[in-house]
Hints:
The structure is a single chain. The chain is an all-alpha fold. The protein has helices at about 1-30, 35-45, 50-160, 160-180, 185-245, 270-275, 285, 290-300, 305-325, 335-355, 365-385, 390-410, 415-450, 460-470, 475-480, 490-510, 515-545, 550-580, 590-620, 635-650, 660-680, 690-710, 725-735, 740-745, 760-775, 775-780, 785-810, and strands spanning about 455, 485. Strands 1-2 form a two-stranded antiparallel ribbon. Helix 18 (about 550-580) packs antiparallel against helix 19 and helix 22 runs antiparallel to helix 23. The model is unreliable at about 245-280 and about 775-780 (pLDDT under 50).
Amino acid sequence: MNTVTLRANMAESESLETITEHERILQEIESTDTACVGPTLRSVYDDQPNAHKRFMEKLDARIRNHDREIEKMCNFHHQGFVDAITELLKVRADAEKLMGQVSDTNRRLQDAGREVTAQTEEVIRCRVQQRNMATTVEKLQLCIPVLEMYSKLKEQLESKRYYSALKTMEQLENIYIPRVSQYRFCQIMAETLPKLREEIKEISMSDLKDFLESIRKHSDKIGETAMRQAQQHRTFNSAVQKQDSLSCAKPLYGLNGQTPLHHNGLSTEAADEEEMDEEVLTAQDLVDFSPVYRCLHIYTVLGDRETFENYYRKQRKKQARLVLQPQSNMHETVEGYRKYFNQIVGFFVVEDHILHATQGLVTRAFTDELWNMALSKIIAVLRTHSSYCNDPDLVLELKNLIVIFADTLQGYGFPVNRLFDLLFEVRDQYNETLLKKWALVFRDIFEQDNYSPIPVENEEEYKAVVSRFPFHDAEIEKQQFPKKLPMSQSVPQIYSQVKEFIYASLKFSESLHRSSTEIDDMLRKSTNLLLTRTLSSCLQNLIKKPHIGLTELVQIIINTTHLEHACKYLEDFITNITNVSPETVHTTRLYGLSTFKDARHAAEGEIYTKLNQKIDEFIQLADYEWGMAESDGRASGYLMDLINFLRSTFQVFTHLPGKVAQTACMSACKHLATSLMQMLLDTELKQISMGAIQQFNLDVIQCELFASSEPVPGFQGDTLQLAFIDLRQLLDLFMVWDWSTYLADYGQPTSKYLRVNPSTALALLEKMKDTSKKNNIFSQFRKNDRDKQKLIETVVKQLRSLVNGMSQHS
């Protein structure tokens, strides 16, 4: 019972729970959106079996309940609905009437608005056009500056203002074209600009090439102008120095007593006035540098400056090599050198202008490199071509050109010390050409000289000679006119020419920026070369000439003596023109004394030689009859002629220094004695008779008489006669036939025949022995002749023994 009750209670409780759940589901269905009902309904089927039936029942009950409520509500509002329908039916008639009115109004409105609509459409179309025009104007306002800039670019290109054109291109690319880059014409412009840049590049490079060709052609004119201005500046400075030196007692130096500074035959002042009138031209006046500036700017703007700099420098180096190449015949005329220097100066003047007018196109290092290369080439060229030059005037003009060339480039900042060093080499060449020229001058003077004392008829002629040559002789000055000066005409001429040489040598020293001491040293050294080499050589050649006789040689010795005395006046002359005291420590002395002494010694030697030659000529005329029985009783004719010649010759020697005349006389007597001795001992002479010995003795006696007559004063005692002592003792030995004394006293210092050599006596005795043999057929019957023959043989044997003893002893 309890179990049933329990189950009944449990069923009741489950039924209550099911009813409550269905109520919740129904409420949820009513309150939930239709799309979300599915899950709610699924929960009905997921519960206890047959629960959906109960749910359906519950749902039907809920529907019925809602129907009852709807019915109640409709019943409550039905009368109001009927009234509303009735009202609507009344409104319907009014609405139809109103609809007709509206339709009529609309029709009339449409008819009236059709024109307005047309006008409105026209207004709309105009507004669209206006908007389009405004847009077009706006876009054109953006495009017009681009087109204007492009048109400006074209004008600049046509007028060759390429740098401005490049700036315009830069503005177009960076500012204007980006604003309207969407348009095709701008794209075409943008594509054209690089091509235009390349065209500008090519055109500017072409202009640069024309510029390089132009400066190559104008370098000569530029250099000429620059060198002329440098010369004017130097001339002006020299004129100022001259004006300053007018108050001094003695100028530094002058040429031929005149101021050394002259220009083309005009005085300095006149030259200055003439040059001041000329317009001063510069490189800019002669060459248009704008192409190189323009090209530099263009390449700088294009970012290719380095390429341009390298090209310019390379081309200028090539032009430098061409400029430095001289013409093969440049050394023939001064114009060749001038043109060469003008081109070089013009080249470096342009480079200097480019260096200062541009920033970095050329650098100081580049110009220094070019100059060093050019300087080495210039020095080599000048060394080569100056060596071909034999004209001192041309060498002097070359020196002046080098000085102006160096001063010009020094004014532009180029170092020129090596050029002045080169001038010392050119100076040596100049001195060599001067020496060659003066060698011809001296040669002409010597050839035209008459080698006789200078005759002076009156005081004027005497002063004329003395004015050219420093001659002072108290005894001659006391003599009455007409009178003769001891030297010949060549002496004052030689002296004057030496001074002219000093003047010519001095010309080269001008403008070398050297001190007076250095100039003095150069003058003295060159003068020494003239005296010791050129004049000395001319004198030596003159002395050796065949046509120069004894009289001429005597005059040459007298001339050299006077020239030697004049050397101190030459030193004073150099001192006066250089204003350097001869007491200066390093002052070079003139070597003229030794030069003239050497020449005089050579002339003296030549006198001795010619005297001996003349004696030989007379000796060759000797015609002795060596087999004569007895002498003629008088001296030979040739010997008397010889003695007369010697007497007249030695009379000419009175003007010579005493020792020279004495030496010449002694030399002549010795040579005569030697020649006579050789004649006796000639190997070709086989036989000599006693008569020939006697004749020969007569000739020797004449020689001794000549020696004792003192042909030249100054000999002491019988000094001159000693030249014939060997002959005298030999002849006395044979004439006296004093063999016993000779043989007995041989070797004794007090021997009467001390100078007779046994070999000499033997040779002569054998010649006489052969004569005795020849006459032996007739003389063998005469006892005296037989005794003499035996004596000769005995003496011969003794002499041979002496000779053999001498040879063994030696």
